[in-house]
Amino acid sequence: MGIYRDLGRNPGIFRVLISQLTARFPFGMLSIIMLLHIQHAFGDYTSAGVILAAESVGQAISGPLTSRLMGRLGMRRVLAATSLICAGLLTTIAFVHLPLMVITALSFFMGLTTPPVTPAVRTLYPRLVPGNQISALFSLDAAAQELIWVLGPVVAVFVSSQFGTTAGLCVAAAFMMLGGAWFISSPAFDQVRLPKARSNFGAVLLRPTVLLTTVIGFFFVASFAAIEAGVVRAFAPTDGGSAHASIESGVVLAIFAGGSLIGGLIIGHRAVRPWSILLRILIVLTGTLACLISLDAWWLSIVLFIGGLGTAPTFAAMSSIIGATVKFSETAEAFGWIGTGQLVGVATGSALAGIAIDAIGANGAILVSGGLLVIAAVIAALSVRQVPDLKGRDIEPPPETTTLTIPLP
């Protein structure tokens, strides 16, 4: 663990890590809270799926676009504007009872103004630590990120079950505003200037590693949204009684997060090899499919903890690949596309899980999660030649190159 201790010797690095996690935390809460909020308002999970799908479309447009704008307008300006607008729309949905179509439109614009925190911070990281520590930083970030995607729903379920979904949405908006302000005020933004990308918008997707990690990230994160919805449904009260069962689902998801955190710390910093992503996905798939054996809380806690051991290491591997193969001027847009894939994955996984739950119950969502992971594993297996072997290498972006005209004598 000495490698993580060495990270602390870089000034301000932990402030950047913690503040950006706080700013991103709402996006681990929103899929579940919106699912519960809309289901309570309209009486079915399919309506909630429509709302989440609209948000995902907005996020699909927003991710790479706002990331690209950071190179033109500056990181702070883009992050501040999107945080204010997105939190305002979220608060409106929380307090105002509106027709389904109106909420759908608001959800689309909420997705469109999603703050590009992830591409911003992952662009900053390689400039804040030496090249031989970037892998460890990506690993630590990935481990902590799982507290967003898996522990976030725990907070969402607890707040919603105890105080209502309106309160849950307000808590998410507060995290977005306060965490965003803390992150934006970091001195790291004064040390790093993101250069304007010279390539055309979207051209970075032509890089095999960017396209690969974007697609795998979509299916990988979609599977988590589905399994989370399935766990919530498995313990949801059916008689209108106490919220004890919902809290039980939160405990199971917290253990899932614990497995991911431990896996990230002990595995995630290891050098990426061509088969690394596939092997780590298979760990998660094993734990997910085992959930079909029983919906008992103890059993789910054990198998999801095992599955979680591969979660953060997979995210760390994808970040390391981008850091080693994409130019610095294109890094923000690359992570923007990857972030879009993951955020859309959350909404898509929740939507598919909602439909499956309406059809066959909690096991339907687990089957959806397993199917999405199988697709991610197949893609990883077919793409091993595109994954660089980073063993023994520092993670540094390729040099910026331009065409020079040399005058003849």
Structure description:
This protein is an all-alpha fold and 409 residues long. The chain has one domain (16-187, 202-386): Growth Hormone, Chain: A. It contains 17 helices and no strands. The protein has helices at 2-7, 13-24, 26-42, 45-73, 75-95, 100-112, 117-128, 134-163, 165-184, 188-191, 208-234, 244-266, 276-290, 297-308, 311-325, 328-360, 362-382. Helix 4 runs antiparallel to helix 5 and helix 11 runs parallel beside helix 16 (328-360). It is globular. The relative contact order is 0.17. Residues 240-245 and 402-409 have low confidence and may be disordered.
List keywords for this structure.
mainly alpha; 409 residues; 17 helices; Growth Hormone, Chain: A; disordered C terminus
Question: Secondary-structure map with pairings?
Answer:
Layout: H1 2-7, H2 13-24, H3 26-42, H4 45-73, H5 75-95, H6 100-112, H7 117-128, H8 134-163, H9 165-184, H10 188-191, H11 208-234, H12 244-266, H13 276-290, H14 297-308, H15 311-325, H16 328-360, H17 362-382
Helix pairs in contact: 2-7, 2-9, 3-4, 3-8, 3-9, 3-16, 4-5, 4-6, 4-16, 5-6, 5-9, 7-16, 8-9, 8-11, 8-12, 8-15, 11-12, 11-15, 11-16, 11-17, 12-14, 12-15, 13-14, 13-15, 13-17, 16-17
